[in-house]
Amino acid sequence: MTDQEIQETFERFFEKYKKTEGDRSAWSAYWTDQNSHGVFEIVMTKCPRGTVFKPYADKRKLTEYVGWETFLEALPELEREQPALDREAFFNGMRDIL
């Protein structure tokens, strides 16, 4: 899946499944994938800071990426470092429920 397809898929997913963070200044949606290597989750939040991505491996927060460009640039390294992240399976699964 190309970066453009990932962005389009996650944006569509976000619009369909977003939830407010309480004061309606921040909205989030998350997707979780589980495979033989563990559980991987990415939370996408839109807030005054911008679009923020928070990846989790086996319920452990790894870092934060602000903005699509930063997130997409980090994906290949994240996939190498985190065996539970299979980029194709992760985003195809998200696309399949849209």
Task: Describe what you observe in this structure.
- The structure is a single chain.
- With 98 residues, the protein is of the alpha+beta class.
- It has one domain (3-97).
- It has helices at residues 3-17, 68-81, 87-96; strands spanning 19-20, 27-35, 38-47, 50-57, 60-61, 65-66.
- Strands 1, 2, 3, 4, 5 and 6 form a six-stranded antiparallel sheet that branches.
- The two termini are 16 Å apart.
- The model has no long low-confidence stretch (mean pLDDT 96).
Strand/helix succession: HEEEEEEHH
Residues in helices, as a percent range: 25-40%
How many domains, in number, for the residues? 1
Our estimate of the beta-strand percent is: 25-35%
Structural class: alpha+beta
Quaternary state of this entry equals single chain
Mean pLDDT: 96
Note the main sheet. 6 strands, antiparallel
Q: Strand tally, please?
A: 6
Shape: globular
Q: Can you count the helices?
A: 3
> Kindly, what is the distance between the CA atoms of the first and last residues, rounded to a whole number of angstroms?
16 Å
In the predicted model, the low-confidence regions spanning at least 5 consecutive residues are none
Radius of gyration: 13 Å
